[in-house]
Amino acid sequence: MTVDASDALIAALAAGAGIGMCATFVTAPYVTRGELVPVLSDFAVERHNITALWPESRRANPAVRAFLSILQEAL
Predict the structure, then answer these.
(1) Minimal CA–CA distance to 3: which of 21, 18, 15, 28?
(2) More confident residue, 51 or 13
(3) pLDDT mean over 17-26
(4) C-beta of residue 13 within 8 angstroms of C-beta of residue 2
(5) Is the torsion defined by CA of 8, 63, 69, 48 positive or negative?
(6) pTM for this predicted structure
(7) Are 19 and 39 in contact (CB under 8 A)?
(8) H-type helices in 1-75, by residue range?
C-alpha cells in the first residue's frame, strides 16, 4: 500500500495492516502507547528529505523565513 499522508499509514498500521515505514517523529506517540512496535530496526532509513514550498511572492516574508528556521531546527 502506498499513501501520501502519514495519518493514513499510521491508522492502517495501528489497525493491524502489517509492517510499514514512517518517520520516527510521527510514530513515537504510538510506540509510547504500545500501539505500534518497531521492527526491522537494522533496515531503518537514516533520513528522508523534506521539501518546503511556498509562493515566490512570499519569498522575503519574515513569517516564512521564521517558519523555515523552525523546520530546520526541528528536523
Answers:
(1) 21
(2) 13
(3) 87
(4) no
(5) positive
(6) 0.58
(7) yes
(8) 6-14, 24-32, 62-74
- At residue 4's C-alpha, the angle toward residues 65 and 7, to 5°, is 85
Q: Grid coordinates representing 39?
A: 521492527
Report the phi/psi class of residue 23: left, alpha or beta, with left for phi > 0 and alpha for psi in -120 to 50. Answer: beta
Long-range pairs, 9-14, Cβ under 8 A, ≥24: 10/36
Domain boundaries, the chain: 6-74
Cell numbers standing for residue 31: 510506540
- The amino acid present at 73, given as its one-letter code, is E
Q: Which residues contact 17 (CB under 8 A, 6 or more apart)?
A: 1
Distance CA 57, CA 11 (A): 37
